[in-house]
Amino acid sequence: MSYNQDFELSIQVSQPYPFNLESLKEIEKNEWVKNQWPLVYFLKNDGLSEAYIGESNNASSRLKNHLANPEKAIFQTVNIIGSDKFNKSATLDLESRLIQYINAEGTFKTKNLNLGHQNHNYYQQDLYKNLFNTVWQQLRDEKIVSKTLEEIENSELFKYSPYKSLNHDQYKSVLEILTNINNSQGNSIFVSGSAGTGKTILATYLLKLLVSDVNNIEDSEIKEDDIYEITLIKEFQKKYPNAKIGFVIAMTPLRETIKKVFSSVPGLKKQMVMSPSETFKLGKKYDLLIVDEAHRLRQYRNISWRGEFKKKNQLLGLGDEGNELDWIMANSHNQIFFYDAAQSVKPSDIDEIKFTELKNKPATLKLSLKSQMRTKGGNDYITFIDKLLSCKLDQKPELPADFELEYFNHFPSLFSKLKIKEAEYGLCRMIAGYSWEWMSDPKRNENLDLNATDITLDGMEFQWNKTYNDWITSENAFEQIGCIHTTQGYDLNYAAIIFGLEIDYDPILKEIVIDKSKYFDKYGKNGVSDINDLKAYIINIYKTILYRGIKGVYIYACNDNLKEYFKKHLDFSDEKIGFDVNLNSPRIIPFEFVKPFVNAVPIYDIKVAAGNFSEPQFYEEFQWAELPMQVSPKKGYFIAQVIGESMNKIINNCSYCLFEEYTAGSRNGEIVLAECTSIQDGDYGSGYTIKKYSSSKTYSEDSYSHESIILEPLSYDESYERIVLTEDESIKFSVKGIFKKVLNWI
Fold first, then answer.
1. How far is CA 62 from CA 26, 43, 72, 246, 736, in A?
2. Residue 301 gets which letter from DSSP?
3. Are the CB atoms for 58 and 98 separated by under 8 Å?
4. Looking at residue 613, what is its pLDDT?
5. Residue among 93, 82, 74, 41 at smallest CA distance from 223
6. Residue 667: its pLDDT value, please?
7. Biggest CA pair distance of the chain
8. How do beta strands 637-643 and 601-609 pair?
9. Beta bridge pairs of residue 366
10. Distance from C-alpha of 731 to C-alpha of 712, rounded to nearest angstrom
């Protein structure tokens, strides 16, 4: 069919109109409003940093209703987003995504409820795939928002947002959960699902929903699909007025992350997030406790705080057999448990049989999530990993083309490729099993050495995670190696999984085997007498961390037999070299097919010296290239190749990078492509360079001048020094472009 080629989607984001009755006539002149076309509108109050996103095919009437509503009348401006290709389904899709991204971007807190956020398929949906990217870029151009989509998608607020669109499994579960709670006098609800099926997203969505004020929704805003959901929420709020609801997470790192998320979402508070022991603080029963990662609830075994645990049991008249599941049951009328037995990773985790007993009670509502939402490998990848570690494979997997699964025989090769992915996507991390002592642990009592090497792999030296909480997003996390406790419950773009010396493959028995003497998690093995029990925990650890990667997973093994086993079942790299940047070159478009800044951007013939200033270069374009699929062309964008190691924390040597032509505005803190022809000494040479920019200025009555300009390297090689330009030298200095990102066409 030819409609794909002819479908050109033109989007218009209007200038902001004042949001008041006097301006309605001007708003009604907007062609999309005037013709009652399906559109999306964006209300905002910059002073309050609040926003509201809506969609309508009768925007004039809708905006009048908003002005009559005191909660909406606080907004100051409105932008209209329209297109002649919009239909109702497309605007609903755009509205839903804008609510998700605007709230996570951080400039504004959205006043929207999270009702009815479902993934919908609609006619010709594939033709609208770049719609949202185009709208977002225009919002950035208008300075309404500042962050890129990739920055947002890598943020914790986006990943755990209660505004996420639910799949069919999740939305159906929401309705069943609400119905069950409304119709019972107190009950347990058990939601099972493997890693990546969206248990935490469902939990945060549900909590936000239950505390939402649905009584003041304007009739014109209620969509037909939302009526039943609203009715159920009203029933819950009538049954439990001012409901006491807690969100329980046993794992400290994830709990602290969710607290941060809740503090940024209207209607939610970080105090709602608690540990199992904090469920005693209220002094009476909660109306509802939502327990995420319930498989990590603990029993009185292999824990460091046995005295406090014992006291909590005594408060309930329990002996040492009491556990955190008992605490949840005793301190709430209703409970929702999100559970996956395959993610139980320590002997302190409550035995599965306790949850089975609860699940088998006649009154317990049992639900299951099956759709894979995290990894692009889908359920086939989850099944493959299960069979791989159960030694039940008979063939290599057939996984989607946009998901990478690769085994590396040489760790520097893995690290080099992961580093390229980190520069392109961010959130790429190394994770290992507990096969090495934590010599650099700041809490270590004996032989403490904060600079000690913890792990050596093919000559490369690393330390374990330098922090316990929020390690994933901490400074220099890419250079460290994380563990199950700093990564469980988190998403990564790419995960590099290191199988340590404690796990191997027995080619005679044809099974995974464990060496307890090389497993260094003392609370993970003390008191475990049966090696098969320890093996089950360790395999669960590796399964859980293997499920972290969204776009891909790279695997490395220390033991030779396990190496050979993985080679048999996985695509593998045996080259002992770094990643070949020549494989990641721009795709040149013949000039006769070029639509400037529509399907291509220019490549400037500059050998950018990511070191000191290079030899003199000419700043001229000579070819045009298409951008990777996830990047939209824009006037002013150009590509240049960066040479050198002085920016290798961000940019690998020989990388092709996207820049935006610099026109005006502050450059402080930006990575810039700069020209300075005034410097001729032997240290600097002359020409172009790329560095992080900062400056100090002297201000007069009506102007300013630079005291100095500092160009800072961002390199793991500490021999690189910053370049300092004096006031006189800065006269011939100019910024040609602002670095946007490293490009990856692979």
1. 15, 12, 11, 36, 46
2. S
3. no
4. 42
5. 93
6. 87
7. 84
8. parallel
9. 190
10. 19
Q: Give which of 259, 9, 13 is closest to 135, Cα–Cα.
A: 13
With beta carbons less than 8 A apart as the criterion, state whether 150 and 426 touch. Answer: yes
* Type and span of the H or E element at 523: helix 522-525
What tokens appear for 594 in the block? 């070029």
Q: How far apart are CA 704 and CA 727, in angstroms?
A: 11
Q: Do 692 and 722 meet the contact criterion of CB atoms below 8 Å apart?
A: no
In the prediction, which pLDDT does 394 show? 77
Tokens of 209: 């929903």
Q: What pLDDT does 681 receive?
A: 31
Cβ 626 vs Cβ 589: under 8 Å: yes
Those residues of the chain that have pLDDT short of 50 are 1-6, 577-581, 608-609, 611-620, 679-685
Instruction: Report the distance separating Cα 157 and Cα 473, nearest Å.
Output: 12
Angle formed at CA 208 by CA 204 and CA 212, multiple of 5 degrees: 170
Predicted structure pTM score: 0.75
Buried b / exposed e along 578-595 (16+ C-beta atoms within 10 A) = ebeeeebebeebeeeebe
- CA separation (Å) from 735 to 440, 590, 605, 607, 739? 42, 30, 16, 16, 11
pLDDT at position 630 is 63
What's the CA gap between 448 and 461, in Å, rounded?
A: 18
Closest to 128 in 3D by CA, of 169, 88, 75? 88
Q: Which amino acid is at 590?
A: P
DSSP 700-716: -SS-EEEEEEEEE---S
| Amino acid 320: pLDDT | 92
What 3-state DSSP class applies to 150? helix
User: From CA 145, how far away is CA 404, in angstroms rounded?
Assistant: 32
Do the Cβ atoms of 711 and 689 come closer than 8 Å? yes
